[in-house]
Amino acid sequence: MKKFKNYFLLGLLTICMGFAFTACGDDDDDDFATSDLVGKWNIIGYEAWETEDGEKWETNSVKDSDITALKFNEDNTCKVYFDYFSEEGTYRVSGNKLIIVLDNDDDNAGAITIAGLNSTTLVLENSYSEVEDGTRYEGYEKYTFTRVD
């Protein structure tokens, strides 16, 4: 089975790789202020599933997430921390969507749904469906972060 794709990472790096990315959500009426995101957020929860041509993979382990932390600055710059490296970029909020553009490619943006945000917790969700090289992938990811500063 093809290695599970971390589509938040892919959504951010879509950008470099040119994949089609779709973030879905049915809660588009929620508005979140960009200023509410300012600070550093460490991952504390990760749930995901993916089907590859009907074969399903599931996890609820933070160890399976490539993202370890996010940092949002007041000037709309950000840093995404992955397992072994980090990437800088810019971000904005549109309704309940968090749009991140990494510095390595400013032509495309990765978008993910803000499912919850308060002074201590940030919850991001993403669902996707795509066909790549004749193989259909569908999945869902939920990231839960806690504010550390």
Walkthrough of the structure:
The chain is 7% helix and 53% strand. It has one helix and nine strands. It is globular, with a radius of gyration of 15 Å. The model is unreliable at 1-28 (pLDDT under 50).
Please give the structural blueprint.
Elements lengths: L6 H11 L21 E14 L2 E5 L7 E6 L4 E6 L3 E9 L2 E6 L7 E8 L3 E12 L2 E13 L2
Q: Give helix % range.
A: under 10%
Q: Which structural category fits the helices and strands?
A: mainly beta
How is the quaternary structure best described? single chain
Mean pLDDT over all positions: 82
Proportion of residues in extended strands: over 45%
Give me the number of helical elements. 1
* Radius of gyration based on Cα positions: 15 Å
Total beta strands: 9
SSE ordering: HEEEEEEEEE
Shape: globular
Can you describe this structure in just a few lines?
The protein is built from 1 helix and 9 strands, in the order αβββββββββ.
List keywords for this structure.
149 residues, mainly beta, disordered N terminus
